[in-house]
Amino acid sequence: METKDIILELRTKKGLSQDELAEKLYVTRQAVSRWENGDTIPNTETLKALSNLFDVSINTLLGSPRKLICQCCGMPLEDSTISREINGDFNEEYCKYCYADGNYRYDNIDELIEVCVKHMSNEEFSPEEVRKYMKGLLPQLNYWKKYSQLGENEFCNFKRKLVEEINELKIEGMPKVDTLYSLEGNKVNLEYRLPNGQYTKFLNENETYFCNQLECEFGGERCFGIVANMDFILVSTYEENGINPELVLYKKR
Ligand SMILES: [Zn+2]
């Protein structure tokens, strides 16, 4: 159906004359007549007002040119399942299960995938198939695209904070840190000699740490090594290739 027929149908279903509809929308009767003749299409503001008045989505008013799917869970959207803003306006991006009262329901993609597996798997579509399908589909939807960017921003903020904390330690001879690199524990897991003569390592081989290596401001053979994560900051000095390491500082965060 085209917009002109849709408006005509919705208007008559509500028992309104062209005049009455025009009055509700603060437009002229001629404007309504032009829409219903197909001469013009209501502007965005008026479409919004029509959407509110008739309680249908703008997509429906326009003759459903877009095949709407929820940008969080991928469910095809109809007027009965489209989410709404707190003021009652349609939010045509999401279904009412993923977005309600101004809040998003899901912040974990794996949690949502399991919900989908529960609801969608049947005799023809096994749980494994649903899971595989959703793992392919969901990351392409706007909500999760935005979400992963958000995650990256948080990561950068955390790294910046860590750099600040390290510089505030004002370790003698160690230059200012500009950045940190992500390295696996097995690349930076130096063996330190304990006072009793034994040797020990402090890091998990498989965990990723924020690291950097800096030359001593006073010159010399030894350089500074930094290893940090959510829980601690560790600074040491060592000779080339991590030989003869000595702990300078270990600070819990
Ligand atoms: Zn949804």
TrEMBL record:
Pfam families, per the entry: HTH_3, Zn_ribbon_2
Database matches in PROSITE patterns: HTH_CROC1
Keywords attached to this entry: DNA-binding
Molecular function terms, GO-annotated: DNA binding
Annotated ranges, domain HTH cro/C1-type: 7-61
Protein name as annotated: Helix-turn-helix domain-containing protein
Native source organism of the sequence: Ruminococcus bovis
